[in-house]
Design goal:
The protein is α/β, with parallel strands linked by helices and 323 residues long. It has 2 domains: 128 residues, NAD(P)-binding Rossmann-like Domain (Rossmann fold), CATH 3.40.50; 182 residues, Rossmann fold. It has 13 helices and 12 strands. The strands form 2 sheets. It has a 7-stranded parallel sheet with strand order 8-7-6-9-10-11-12, sandwiched between helices. A 5-stranded parallel sheet has the order 2-1-3-4-5. Helix 1 links the parallel strand 1 and strand 2.
Length: 323
């Protein structure tokens, strides 16, 4: 019987579905799997269902001679050496689209939370700091009518823009590919240069997939072009933001605040950020809903079932393996 290894805890329904077809083993540890444990798990496996937090390198693949598919539990796949997988004729799959609404909702949770200082207020109330309503007590800023800047107008960026219409916001965006006129009109979004996105946005939110050229997309120079009243939201990928620079501009109030769900050296969070009150730090909850995580698990399982039964992957990110 063909063997499948799951590198972390996933919704049980997907594991049971795979077990109907294959011999399934899984890492059951509390923390993230180590490289040694990952190698041990896939040494004689034909299928790997890995988590977004697992680095699957060329060296790791070399120790799994029977591997026929790597199904990533996540929309992104920068944790996998896709080029090495392609050279070995191993299809790599992801779980696109199903994360869109959950991540857009999380983005809006960060926008509203930082604008209205909700997390600060919660801490203050628990510490006994709420002694009664007062006109100047714990003021935030309104979101309605402000300018939202979106970097990366893919599925998630579009979903964020649709929600912004309910707040009567002016929507600016910059993206690798410009939308067509009909889409721009439907979203009420205006394409601008990256420079204008920085200078005009009251809330700047990142929604691009990561690539090396986007490393430190936002650093000292970019932050200093933003309004002092502006907020940064990052629910995309941590390395797009220079965290050392961000901590300094937040501390100096050169921008008003930030809402982060991802980190440059994840899962490590910079101590300099944790010391600040004008930043919300969420533990990578973008698609962390019961509905979305179940759908992601099912997609990953279905890809493994298809490939190990001699068919093509349903969500292949390296179609050259079939060339």
């Amino acid at each position: 019987m063909k063997k499948v290894f799951i590198s972390g805890r996933i919704p049980v329904e997907a594991k049971e579905k795979l077990a109907q077809h294959f011999a399934v083993t899984a890492y059951e540890g509390e923390g993230l799997i180590s490289e040694k444990e990952l190698v041990e798990g896939i040494t004689d496996a034909e299928g790997l269902l890995c988590l977004l937090s697992d680095a699957v390198s060329q060296e790791i693949m070399a120790q799994a001679p029977h591997l026929k598919i790597i199904a990533n539990y996540g929309a992104g796949f920068n944790n996998i050496d896709v080029m090495a997988a392609t050279e070995r004729k191993i299809p790599v799959t992801n779980t696109p689209l199903v994360s869109t609404n959950a991540t857009a909702d999380m983005t809006w949770a960060l926008i509203l939370g930082i604008a209205r200082r909700v997390v600060e207020g919660d801490k203050l109330t628990r510490a006994g700091g709420f002694t009664g309503w007062a006109p100047l007590f714990h003021l935030g800023v309104e979101v309605t009518g402000k300018t939202l800047g979106i970097f990366g107008m893919g599925n998630i960026g579009k979903a964020v823009a649709r929600r912004a219409k309910g707040f009567e916001m002016e929507i600016l965006y910059h993206s690798r590919t410009r939308l067509n006129v009909e889409e721009e009109k439907e979203l009420g979004a205006r394409y601008v240069s990256f420079e204008e996105l920085l200078t005009e946005s009251d809330f700047l939110t990142l929604h691009s997939s990561y690539s090396p050229e986007l490393h430190h997309l936002l650093s000292w120079e970019e932050f200093r072009k933003m309004k002092k009243s502006a907020f940064l939201i990052n629910a995309a990928r941590g390395p797009m933001v220079d965290e050392a620079a961000l901590a300094e501009v937040l501390k100096a109030k050169e921008i008003a605040g930030a809402g982060l769900d991802v980190y440059e050296f994840e899962p490590k969070v910079a101590e300099s950020l944790m010391a600040l009150n004008n930043v919300i730090l969420a533990p990578h909850l973008g698609n962390a809903t019961v509905e979305t995580r179940a759908a992601m698990a099912e997609i990953a399982a279905n890809n493994i079932i298809e490939v190990l039964n001699g068919r093509q992957a349903l969500n292949c990110v390296n179609p050259a393996v079939y060339g």
